[in-house]
Amino acid sequence: MKTNLDARLMLKDTFFILAGIGSAAFGLESFLFPNRFIDGGATGISLLVAEVTGQSLPLLIILVNIPFMVLGFRVIGKAFAIKATIAILVLALVLALIDFPEVTQDKLLVAVFGGFFLGAGIGLSIRGGSVLDGTEVLAIYLSRKLSTTIGDIIILINVLVFLAAAYLLSIETALYSMLTYLAASKTLDFVVEGIEEYTGVTIISSHSNEIRLMIINRMGRGVTIYDAKGGYGKNGVHNEYDVLFTVITRLEIRRLNIEISKIDPKAFVVMTKINDTRGGMIKKRVL
Fold first, then answer.
1. H or E segment to which residue 248 belongs
2. How does 253-279 read in b/e, with b if 16+ C-beta sit within 10 Å?
3. Predicted pLDDT of residue 155
C-alpha cells in the first residue's frame, strides 16, 4: 500500500513539474524574451544576460542556477537538489527545442501575461516539490546567516536585478519588468496557496459551548478546545475558561463573525492567516 501511495505522489509531483515547465517556457518565449522584458531572481538574471550578451537563454538558465542547486543540496537536501536540477534542465531543453510563437508586442500585456505564465510555472513546480528558479534557496541560506527574513533577501536580490536592468537596458524596461515580477509573484502565491486561503480563528467567550455547537452544526467546521486561565484580574483572581480554535476559509469570515455576535457580542476573536493545512477537518462537512 505504501508503494502505491509513493507511486501516486511521484506521478502527481511529475505532473505539476511538467505543467510548470510548460507554463514557464510559454511565458518566457511568447512574451518576455522577444520583448526584452525580464523577471526577478535567477530567471531575471538569465534574461538580462541573454539580452545584453546575445548568449543562449536555455544555456544561461542552466549556468545561472548551478550555484543555487549546489547550495540547495547543502541547505535543503539531496532529493530536492536532484529534482530541482532535473526540472531546470528540462525547462532549458524545452526552450531550446520548442519554438513558441510571440503572442503580442503590447508592453502592458507582455508584462502582465508574461508574469502570469512564468509565475504559474514556478508555482506549479513548487507544488511538485521542485523549483525553476534557485533564488529562494539563496534567500533561505542568507536569512540563516544574516538573521533576517527570506522575503527581505528576495526583495534585495530583485532590487539589484532591476537596477542592473535600468542601467543596461532602459528605465522603462526596468519598470515594466517590475510589473512582470509583481504579476509573477502574485500568480505564484495563488497557485501555491490555492483559491481557498484558510484563516485560523481563536475565540474566547463565556458562551464557548454555544459557539462550539454553532461552528459544528451551522458552519460545518471542526473545533479544538483548550483549557485556559486568564492572565489578569483584581486581587490575583484568574478566571478559567475554554478557548476555541477553528479553521475556516476567507469567504466564511463574515458569516462566522455574525454568528458569534448573535451569541456573545463581547467575545474576543483573533484571526490569523494560514498558508497551508494538512489533515483534520479542513474540508467543509456537508450539513
1. strand 240-249
2. eeebeeebeebbeebebeeeeeeeeee
3. 77
